[in-house]
Specification:
Structural class of chain D: mainly alpha
Distance between the termini of chain D: 82 Å
Number of helices of chain D: 4
Largest sheet of chain D: none
Order of helices and strands of chain D: HHHH
Number of strands of chain A: 0
Number of helices of chain A: 4
Helix content of chain A: over 70%
Oligomer: heterotetramer
Largest interface: B-D, 91 and 78 residues
Order of helices and strands of chain A: HHHH
Radius of gyration of chain A: 18 Å
Shape of chain D: elongated
Shape of chain A: elongated
Strand content of chain A: under 5%
Structural class of chain A: mainly alpha
CATH architecture of chain D: Orthogonal Bundle
CATH class of chain D: Mainly Alpha
Radius of gyration of chain D: 24 Å
Amino acid sequence: MTDNVLWIDILSGILVLSGSFFCFSGAVGLHRFPDFFTRMHAASVTDTLGAGLVLSGLMLQAGFSLVTLKLLFILLFLLITGPASSHAMAKAALHSGRKPLGEHIRIDIPAMSREDDSSGGVKSKP
Amino acid sequence: MLSGIYGLLSASLFVVLDAVDVAFTEAAVGAGISTILMLTTLAITGRYELSRPSIRTRIGLLLVLVIGVLLIYGTLGMPYFGMPENPANGHVAAYYLENTEQQIGIPNYVTAVLASYRGFDTFGELVVVFTAGVAVLALLPHSRDGFVVDDMQPMKHHLILRITSKLLLPFILLFALYVQFHGDFGPGGGFQAGVIFAAAIILYSMLYGLENAMQVISFPVIRFCAALGVLLYGSVGIVSMLKGGNFLDYSVLLETPVAGQHLGILLIEFGVGLTVAAVMVCVFFTFTGSVVSPAKSARVVAARDGEKTQGAP
Amino acid sequence: MLTAAVIAIVVTMFLALLRAMAGPSLYDRILAVNMFGTKTVLFIAVVGFLMGRPMFLDIALVYALMNFISVIAILRFFEYDKRGEINHDR
Amino acid sequence: MNFETQWLQTFFGLYNYWIVVALMMCGLFIVITDGNLIKKVVGLTIFQTSVFILYISMAKVTGATAPIQIEQGTAVYSNPLPHVLILTAIVVSISTTAVALALIVRIKRAYHTVEEDVIQRWDVKKRRSEKRSKPFHE
């Protein structure tokens, strides 16, 4: 029994710490990257990942209660709204005539959606 | 020019300072509604400003520094931070903390003080909110049953945002109801719930345009609700007077005082929520309704410029 | 452990704040504000656990909601403003 | 007790007021130096928030918890009264801000600007022209 509790504590600790590490790396990326799109790629990806990890770590600590349910709601909410709002931001920035850095990037509407996909799929390196 | 980050920061400060109810309100109001209102006004007035002569800045800086130093000198006589025996924590506050359990019977002290001990104050605040809504309606033009909607384009091209928000809306409304009726037990209550409810409607009207939002909840209904909330609050007070108690003394409403308090708090919180939500939505609609489209604005400017050039020679 | 998480999140918030102040373009600022909001949600959740009263997650939820709405509002009004910018040019 | 520890004690006893003063002065600075009416309203909002923080920090009791009853056992709670005052004050402040912004929108309609000095110049010009034209009409 106590063994179980200890393991859950350790697991939640690992989750929370790695989540906050991702948050931090996202912030570093927000500062170090050269233009808006790379920054957004750093911020939005780590935002979603870090929030997910931290909240699930807390969920493990809360046990089985109303608190867990609320954490779950927050997590779902962040998972839905985070990517949606960063998508909207990228789109607005693209429409305002801002172009991603790079040599051969064609900007037309289909390329835009691909751009979003790829930024969602790649993990950022801190 | 400005960002809504300020409200976010101050709300997290309030969490650290134990003021969960206040943090709740500040989160909803400072981060959400006030940012939106500021942005709407900016959209009406334009983002750019003139540069000022620096002499004015220097005089202002000097004045501010002098006042600041004086104030800091004044704080030296203030009681230290966080001490339980500070004068602010004596008097009635201790009384509230001791007696809420027997007299009111709800765990959230803030709600107890807000709705019951200080119910008359809160009534006054609610009337202020209502009056502010009336003032905004009086200041900005609107026709009797709605506006001539000269709305800016709803965000048609943000398909993903629209779908996401539509998915989330029912949950936001549900959450508002939860906050409304859970205010006796946890952080929350009429003010917060009203603002969240208003935020949900504002979200809808931002994404789908004012006309669609008005089909969901029409303008006369909103105005009616704003008045109804104040009326509900006041009539709870009147009823408690008719039953032989003081104004807003809920103990006489039902057989036992505690049950009466529960009913009274529930009713007046509902009144507060109704009025706050209605006033916020109403203010937002009025503001958005008076945002003119770029074309029309350009026409106005052109007309003004024409006037100027005619008048100049 | 939770303390370490709080410190990391506060540092992150601070960095996001710096970016929001320094951000060369409007969109950088919006991005930083959005990030700041998410971090605030996490901050409130973790601090709630740290203070031993995790019932206050409602605030975090409200926060997430308001953050989303204000980002949409900023995007909406500034996109609009961009189109109507000719009027305000001085 | 030597001087340094006394100073430290003063600092940790009063730093909340100093933060409030700093914020308040920021707000005041914006209000008096900036001519843009919207910025003035922002300054007022900052000023208001500093007052909120003043009240809330006065209510804080070290080692106490939020004023919502815990099911089991007793605890020290922070002072709920300032929380109530500020809670309503926040909602009232947003309402008054809304009224102020509505006034600004009206001013923009009437003058096509929200810069204070420009508005004053317009007014002065108008009054002068009225004065000039008055004897003419009579």
